[in-house]
Amino acid sequence: MLSSIDVKLVYDVAEPTHFCLHLQVADHADQHLREERLQVEPALPLHDYRDPVKGNRFVRFDAPKGQLQVHYRAEVEVNYALPTPGLGEAPVNQIPDEVLHFLSPTRYCESDLLGNAAQQLFCKAPAGLERVQAISDWIHDNIAYTPGSSDATTTAQQIFVQRQGVCRDFAHLGVTFCRALNIPARLVAGYVFFDEPPQDFHAIFEAWLDGRWVLFDPTRMAPVERLVRVGTGRDAKDVAFATLFGKAQLLSKDIAVRESETPPAATPGQPLLRAVA
């Protein structure tokens, strides 16, 4: 699957502000970045860096007062391998050191508070892939997808009570239930084509089963094998598309995703990251 990404952001910067943007396609084994370009107007010095463990990529810069425009384009080949049936859960003492912290509760995923609910709902489901699929199915069937029903502070416990939210909330609840059952889980953010626009950033979750990470999307808005991964984290605070230190307002956000089944031959050359006036 070849995906073409086009993201345009416009900000009104009220005072000098430091931006940390998380828009770029992640370095990940399941996808290959063919080309990309990031433009900032007015032209500014950019500093980009990569999380060496998760592959998340960020760009930072100082923006002066006034209007700021950001334009990011990329072409990505996605080659996610769907899981085979029967994947199991690992005993806690066999979970790798680098995965163990994905069992801990976090700000948005209070697995310590929803442990009883998780046990009551899913303890009888077959362990492993079937149990996590049961979690994903339960969220889809019991939580209403309602834009505007939550905000940047809404947690998984609140979603469990109010029974409505958006993709971020669905993913947080999936992560929370998994962790409450001693299944390492984390949030994944990225780009994917939706049959029903408007396009936007999308959040799903993945669980650690039989030595690999397996993706699940409780919203069922798009097949998981089509997601272009941008960020991986403990919860949404690790994968926010923009973190601002100052005062700026997002005026507009336009995201377009186009997909084709058969990628054409790759063009030689390295991905390009630069500021253009």
Automatic annotation (TrEMBL):
- Entry coiled-coil feature ranges: none
Phylogenetic placement of the source organism = Bacteria, Pseudomonadati, Pseudomonadota, Betaproteobacteria, Burkholderiales
Q: What is this protein called?
A: Transglutaminase-like putative cysteine protease
Using the record's annotation, list all stretches that form the Transglutaminase-like domain: 159-220
Task: Name any one Pfam family assigned in the record.
Answer: Transglut_core
Query: Keywords in UniProt for this one?
Result: Hydrolase, Protease
Q: Name one GO molecular function term.
A: peptidase activity
- State the Gene Ontology BP annotations: proteolysis
Recorded hits in InterPro entries, A to Z, give: Papain-like_cys_pep_sf (IPR038765), Transglutaminase-like (IPR002931)
